[in-house]
Amino acid sequence: MNKHEKRKISFNSIELRAETGETGKKVLTGIIPYDSKSVSMWGINEIISRTAFKKTLADKTVVRALYNHDDNKVLGSTESGTLILENSETGLICTCELPNTSYANDAYEIISRGDVKTMSFGFLPKKWVDDVEGKTRTLKEVHLKEVSFCVPNPAYEESNSLTYMRGLEKQNINIEALNEALEKDSFDDADKLIINETINSLRNLVSDKPEAVETEQSNDTPEEVDTTVETKEDTTALQLQIEAEINC
Predict the structure, then answer these.
(1) Structural domain range at position 215
(2) Three-class SS state of 217
(3) Does one domain contain both 16 and 105?
(4) Do 150 and 172 share a domain, yes or no?
(5) Contact 141, 119 (CB under 8 A)
(6) 3-state SS record for 4-48
(7) Could you tell me the CA-to-CA distances from 237 to 90, 182, 221 in Å, in that order?
(8) CB 73 within 8 A of CB 99
């Protein structure tokens, strides 16, 4: 994980409600839970520790509330006082006083009806700890950039990752097969073959003299499939490159 890359994280279960405040303004309230596993992305769950937002709150960093991560649809801001962030024992409470805009009214209506019960947030990771198996990452400190209400799909990055990778289909790369292979802890011969083909296709893209890559039907047994071109370093580099492109 790069400390300078903006990322987003979502949870399956969020306490989220819409109500009318004392001033008659429409208000959305949600809580980002501590010590709870996030939606899985690339086989990793993330946990927000109770110290994660401490510096953001202490520094009075400007944080905005957005409609589904859309920078053009601002719902509130800590700078104007229309977004209040409050630390609690169970999580970060986010209270947003909504503006009188069409998308804000839409968000209020959708949430009050119970059609959407999830929220998400965008941040810059600063400090984290991975478990021994590399399956769970605990975020110790993050630079919170935005909180988003009305996020219809809690698996934000995972559900959209294939959309961002559609450009690879033009190179006859099987996106779904590649994604399934990279999700696994270990590769079988079929996984190695699709990864090897992807590596060769990407190499040809940047080569001055592309080499033709031929995929022949073979009656060989799985043990006889030639995967010698693929190396662990190639596979790791490819996966990191794809993750970096997705999370930008």
Answers:
(1) 165-247
(2) coil
(3) yes
(4) no
(5) no
(6) CCCEEEECCCCCEEEEECCCCCEEEEEEEECCCECCCECCEEEEE
(7) 38, 12, 28
(8) no
Full DSSP string of 226-244: --TT--HHHHHHHHHHHHH
| CA nearest neighbour of 48 among 108, 110, 136 | 136
Structure tokens at 211: 């080499």
Cβ neighbours for 123, distance < 8 A, ≥ 6 positions apart: 6, 7, 8, 9, 142, 143, 144, 145
In this structure, what DSSP letter does residue 132 have?
T
Q: What is the pLDDT of residues 122-177, one digit of tens each?
A: 888 899 999 888 788 899 999 999 999 988 765 433 333 333 344 555 566 666 67
Asked whether the whole model's pTM tops 0.90, one would answer: no
Domain total of the chain: 2
In a domain, 1, yes or no: no
Say which DSSP state 49 is in: -
**90 and 177: one domain?**
no
Is pLDDT at 245 greater than 60 in this prediction?
Answer: no
Strand 136-149 versus strand 26-33 pairing type: unpaired
- Distance CA(175)–CA(178), nearest Å, equals 5
Instruction: Answer with the one of 154, 185, 210 that is the final residue of a domain.
Output: 154
